[in-house]
User: Fold Reverse transcriptase domain-containing protein from Cacopsylla melanoneura.
Amino acid sequence: MLNGLRVQMLRFADDIAVLAPDEQILNRSLDCMNEVLNEYKMKINMKKTEVLVCSKEPETVNILVNNEPIKQVKHFKYLGSTITENAKSLMDIKQRIGQAKTAFMKNKSILCSNNIDMNVRKNLSMECSV
Assistant:
């Protein structure tokens, strides 16, 4: 729910995340989406399509498109963020900390140099963190 509205899809460019409260509704949603895509001579790329169940207890589901099963995963990346089956952010946070460390290490000699003005180093550090 977002501002009292049920969000059923997250779309950005050609990436779509379909949200559903259960297996049956997700299968119906994908069938409808597939029908519309077929009308425009388009299709779902099954190699890039995955299903993730966010739940306290691990659950296996059977989601199909054109009678072909979609691979179920324990986590996936959507728009740069890692989403996990337990809906916690720990994996995403660890990855972002790792990326920040890598960015810092690449620029450590500049960021820690006393020969470069502090304001320049602050600005560079802000650019690296974005």
User: Anything to note?
Assistant: DSSP finds three helices and eight strands in the chain. The chain has a mean pLDDT of 88.
